Amino acid sequence: MRQSDILIIDDEPYIVRALSRTLSVLGCVVHTANRGESGLEILEQRDIDLAICDLKMPGMGGLAFLKQVQVQHPYVFTIALTAHGDLETAVEAINTAGVYKFLLKPWNEDDLRQTVQRVLEARLLTLERDSLNQKVKRQVAILKRLEKEHPGITKKHLDEHGNVLLP
Amino acid sequence: MTSHDIIGDASDAMSSDKPPSPKNRRILIVDDDPGVRSSYQSILQPDDMDDFFAMGMEVLGESALDAWEPQEPYQLTLTESGEQGLDAVAAAVRQKRHYALAFVDMSMPGLDGAKTVKHIWTMDPHVKIVIVTAYSKYTPDQIVRVAGRDDILYLRKPFNPLEISQFARALTNQWNLERERDRLAENLHLANRNLEELNKHLEEKVKEKTALLIQSEKMSSLGVLVAGVAHEINNPLSFVISNLYHLQDCARSVARPGDRTREGNTGKRAVHAKRLVADMHALIDEALEGADRIAGIVNELRTFSRSEEVEGVPADINMILDSAVNLLRHELKYNVKLIKRAGRLPRIICSPQKLSQLFLNLLMNAVQAIEGQGTITISTRAAQQGRHLTSPCIVTTIADTGKGIPATDHDKIFDPFFTTKPVGEGTGLGLSIAWDIVRHHSGHIGVKSAPGQGTTFTVELPAVPAGPAN
Lengths: 167, 470
Prior knowledge:
The structure holds 2 protein chains of 2 kinds.
Chain A: E1 5-9, H1 13-25, E2 29-33, H2 36-45, E3 50-54, H3 61-72, E4 77-82, H4 87-96, E5 101-104, H5 109-149
Parallel strand pairs in A: 1-2, 1-3, 3-4, 4-5
Chain B: H1 3-7, E1 26-30, H2 34-44, H3 51-59, E2 75-79, H4 82-94, E3 101-105, H5 113-123, E4 128-133, H6 140-147, E5 152-156, H7 161-255, H8 269-302, E6 313-315, H9 317-327, H10 329-333, E7 336-342, E8 348-350, H11 352-369, E9 374-383, E10 393-400, H12 430-440, E11 444-449, E12 455-462
Parallel strand pairs in B: 1-2, 1-3, 3-4, 4-5, 7-9
Antiparallel strand pairs in B: 6-8, 9-10, 10-12, 11-12
């Protein structure tokens, strides 16, 4: 959690302040915005790990912002914030905009901390998995090429770079 | 005594298909002369007549068959004196087999005809009476004076059989018609009474249902508000709670000033303390502001609670409009621009809660008419007279740049349940209730709109002045 970069977006400044306080105490680096558009700008400029966003906002609105993030910044994980009258939008956000979890207003401080922690962990796991997947893909590509050029060679021993080990 | 007793049928007020009651053909004869009594019998009951008299009449050239033959035979009761006649009538009344008609001789020993008639009528006022008199001793006026009524028919002795049979036929028919009329009149009366009661009953039901519908409309508009209000309340509540949490942390910091805080590794204690106090003040101020906002919204909501409805109190229309706008602030925030042009308005006597609902309904319609971005303009002004009201009034217009209403719908929109929204959305009662509320205040509401060109509602409310004491 320490040194994670978190973006907070809400049109209500006092809420942004309140969230920032909580997350700063946890050691996060907090970035803030009041509208979806400015939030996207920040995402372009900085490496953000997690964005917490209110669903009801003027201008582009929370849902539209989250959908953009999903497309343009797939490794920025998101949490949606919503008041009770808005659960349908929250569900839509999870189902169609890749939101990982949502929080209800007013939130419980412990819930907030735990949720942020879980989402950051999930993000790390996803990054790791994706990175490992990439490696495996590369390996398989190399092996395939080798096999094509030198059929039967993969039955021999290879080191991790694809070099044939000669006995 | 009603016609029901006489005819003896149980009339159901609602059924008019009863078969006609059997015709009453009972006739009473009161005459002390046996010869006269026989004459009556031969005329009215020709088959029962003594053969001797039949022969006699033929010999004399008068045929009983000259008399009109009745469709059905009469039932004759022959009595010899006034007293006997009265006994017969009494018995008839007791047995509910009333006489339709009585031929009464005027001069009889004992009770004379007029007195007899008077007494007959005290027992049965419906009997038709023919007084038969030989002498001109008594004038009709005298007889009427004794008998007490003037609907007596007279016959002179010696009478012509035709006269007797015609009187018998005409008067028994009349008696029957009168009873039928009485019966129908009573049916009508009963039916009317039933209808009145039904009407009253229905009116009450309608009032009940209308009240329920209005209440349910309030609830449904309240439902629309709840989503917005949830946001308006939960936002400030969020940072009030969060701030209190942080104040708790600050309190712990104060208790253990040596602890490291987000200051980092170092920090002079004095500076730290000062920072802490400043933080706490900021947290408290924000929280108080948040609490205030919540209190404000709750207050606005109270205008919807039923127990708050009052009539005939002074209020400021601008304030009522502001209240309604506040409640809808959430809906307006995101894609609607609001322009308010408030004129200087006197306070007027009205029902503030009803007007609040009125404006809320109109504003809600305006918001929902706007697809995408739009503007709502609210303006108020005081006028010496409006376009429809000829006395001083307050003119309020609510205009939107939404999708507009086609001209064909302009007079339908105020109808209950008329809605262009899909099923399940809205009750279609909003404008109908608005109409009722305007009418309740003796005002006028009009609409100007065209598809694609927005809609303007204009409400004129009579400016019933609030006195200085208010």
